Amino acid sequence: MSDPLIAASRAAANGLFAQSTRMRVLSENIANAETTGKTAGSDPYQRKTISFQSITDDMDGIDMVQVDNVDRDNAPFRTEYMPGHPAADGKGFVKLPNVDMLVELADMREASRSYTANTQVIKQVREIVSMTLDLLRPNS
Fold this sequence. Notes:
Helix content is 46%, strand content 21%. It is of the alpha+beta class. The protein has one domain (4-136).
């Protein structure tokens, strides 16, 4: 088993990676919230989802998070009547992405807070290690 502080840093680093991946997926959803298909009746951008899983590091015996899957949301597309739009079907309806901006922004806030919390863990570990090294130095 390695040092508990190193193990804490590794767990937090995995959390940083997971949350940064989550933010990338959310930013793609937000950026494409109005992206329609190019031709009549074609499907628009389909919202992406991300899931995580817990893994156990056998060497340290710690549980960490990792990205399990980035997938597509199968929720139905919104439709809007826009007869002049290039993606409008025969009845004048255009399929719009299944992205709900309020959901994406709330999820982004949660991801940001989780990222910040993991950053704080790493910062605290560095501070504790630094304090420990200071204590071990001979007085001058």
